[in-house]
Amino acid sequence: MRIAIVSDYFLDYVGGAQTSMLQQRAALSGAGHDVLMVSTKRMRGARVQEHAGELHIGPSFTIPGLLLPVVPNSASVRAVLRDAFRRHRVEAVHVQTEFGLAHAAADVAAELGVPVVHTVHTFYWASEGRWHLALAPLTRWLLTRFTGASIPRLPLSPRGGFDNLLRNLTLAMALRADRVVSPSAHQARDLSAAGVQGEIAVVPNPIATSGRASVPLAPEAAGHPSFLWVARCEAVKRPLVFAEAAVAALEKAPSSFTVDFVGEGSELQALRRVVDGRHEIRVHGNLPHERVLELMDASAVVVLTSLGFDNQPMTIAEAVSRERGVLYCDPKLKEGLTHSGHLAETPDAAGLAAALAALSSDPERVLQLSRGALIDRELFDPANYVARMTALYTAES
User: Fold this and answer.
1) Of 31, 55, 282, 327, which is most buried by a Cβ count within 10 Å?
2) Position 261 pLDDT exceeds 60
3) 227 and 328 part of one domain
């Protein structure tokens, strides 16, 4: 098949959605399908670049702090997409964001009679504080203008403001898609409750590339474990909570474990301040994906500290694919962690500190999680993903 995967996001930014899209392309391409990757890119001069199966569109501007590129659903953008979809003879348009570029792609797909599949990477938008409440009406107007879409006004978040608006924006794309995909069952249930009609396909994120075989965890590595935290360094991923937990645990048992933080975002500098002076904790900022995999192989346990935000984090898929267990704190995120997950008793810093202390003093438990990953990683097999998705791409509406 000929498939267009469409994302409003920069694909070189560390994030689960970006990683998932790249892995999906690898899985589909590896199975012989032709994939056109459409995304935004920081560019000088030219607004459009196409090379080797990738179509890049320069954003009109990027929202500071969020690093969110803005591409309006304009006639010129639709013309670029229309030309590309025709030249590549695209048979399915797979949108994986909900902003202007995704809506432009959906408009062109409808015009060309091509089915639109929408993967929802998160329905659980969350922001800090209450400052955004007064700005929600203006933001709604801007989003309506840039997407060209009608955004519902359902009460989907008790916090209101941006959270509610962005959940409604996500719902708007899901409602217009021919088929909707959720990587997790719990998010699929919430989308159905919000009003998405028909079956929502639950298709876990695939892991299709590794570059090298995974390495079983060595007993000596389990005896002095290294914990890897990798995500966007934003409040929704709770890096500061985990940093406080790590510092507290190390104060009680110095040098009993090490921690690597990978990712960039608005809380990166605050993270550096929290861990300053602890030689056991290293803050790397953004790193290439291959380097992240090297750190994952060098670690004993991967850490996931989001709470109420994620649906099926790529952190889980990547960790179990590398034979590593996962320390997590959100009880909703059990899918993929049946045998490889260690759930903290509480999601706060105290609960995470206790989990760090427990794992760093119990090498057999760490090894057990690693062995369990060999079982859990079957959920993320690329062949399963390709079979499920091609069936959705070709299904009758």
Assistant:
1) 327
2) yes
3) yes
**Number of folded domains in the chain?**
2
For the chain, the average pLDDT equals: 93
Lookup: tokens for 87: 């030249």
Looking at the structure, tell me whether residues 158 and 247 fall in a common domain.
no
Residues 248 and 105 in one domain: no
Most confident stretch, 18-22, 35-39, 157-161 = 35-39
- The answer to whether residues 180 and 282 belong to one domain is no
Run of H or E residues at 48: strand 48-51
Q: What pLDDT sits at residue 396?
A: 79
Residues 6+ apart with CB under 8 A from 59: 40, 69, 70, 71
Q: What is the pLDDT of residues 361-379, one digit of tens each?
A: 999 999 999 999 999 999 9
How far is residue 9's CA from residue 38's CA, in Å, rounded to a whole number? Answer: 10
Q: Among 377, 212, 205, which residue's Cα sits nearest to residue 297?
A: 212
Q: What is the DSSP letter of 126?
A: -
Q: Is position 333 within any domain?
A: yes
Non-local CB neighbours of 277 within 8 Å, separated by 6+ positions: none
d(CA 103, CA 95): 8
Instruction: State how beta strands 34-40 and 2-10 pair.
Output: parallel
Task: Give the CA angle between residues 268, 269, 273 to the nearest 5°.
Answer: 115
In residues, how long is the chain? 397
Residues 213-244 have pLDDT tens digits of: 899 999 999 999 999 999 989 998 999 999 99
